[in-house]
Amino acid sequence: MSVAIDQLLDEKRKLDFRIYELKWFQGVDAFKRINPSEASMINAQVQAMEAYSKILSDRISAIDGTFKKGAPGSVLDHEDVVAQTASELLVDNLPEEYASLAIKNLVSGDFKAGHVFTALKQGFDWGKTPEGSDFWVDVTYALMHGLTLPPIPKQEEAK
Questions:
Q1: What are the E-state strand segments in the chain?
Q2: Backbone dihedral angles phi then psi of residue 80, each to the nearest 5 degrees
Q3: Which of 131, 137, 106, 128 is nearest to 119 (CA)?
Q4: How far apart are CA 154 and CA 159, in angstroms?
Q5: How many other C-beta atoms lie within 10 A of the C-beta of residue 117?
Q6: What are the residue ranges spanned by the domains of the chain?
Q7: CA neighbours within 13 Å on the CB side: how many for 59?
């Protein structure tokens, strides 16, 4: 893969994750309590970022002709991704030890999601897990960037 494609994919991954985070925030109760003008600006920001993400997809396609929604350049749920249960996504996308930990923490493994990030982010309150919030942030970051997953904390080290 060319350096240009790598840079565009990296930019798109980061942008898509920021979009995902904002969309997640739009769905929580705290968003409903913010100033309406701030909420409106956040909504406009998401729309602009989605347009930018589409432009990046188009540029990648123009260079190599292979990029599609839901391909490695995107970490978001897309309409062309088949939704699975949170439990299925975790088992399919995480090493067994990590999937087991995440599944133990799930509030409900029945909800449907299009991506493992959705299963992790919406499946449980990271701060209330034995592993602690920092661990799950590190797991998500490692998955996003193709890095080695952080070591699983021993029970006494957790949180």
A1: 84-85, 112-113
A2: -95, 5
A3: 106
A4: 10
A5: 22
A6: 3-64, 84-145
A7: 15
DSSP line for 72-110: TT--S--TTSPPEEHHHHHHHHS-HHHHHHHHHH-S-TT
| 107-113: average pLDDT | 78
Residues with Cβ within 8 Å of residue 88, at least 6 apart in sequence: none
Rounded to an integer, what distance in angstroms lies between the CA atom of residue 134 and that of residue 146? 18
How far apart CA 85 and CA 62 sit, in angstroms, is 34
- Give the C-alpha separation, 7 to 146, whole Å: 15
Vertex 115: Cα angle to 148 and 69 (nearest 5): 105
Tens of pLDDT, residues 112-129: 877 787 788 888 888 889
> What is the pTM for the complete model shown?
0.52
Instruction: Identify whether the C-beta of residue 89 lies closer than 8 Å to the C-beta of residue 113.
Output: yes
- At 93, list the tokens: 């996308």
Q: Which amino acid is at 153?
A: P
d(CA 76, CA 17): 7
How does pLDDT run across 15-44, given as a tens digit for each residue?
Answer: 888 888 888 888 877 788 889 999 999 999
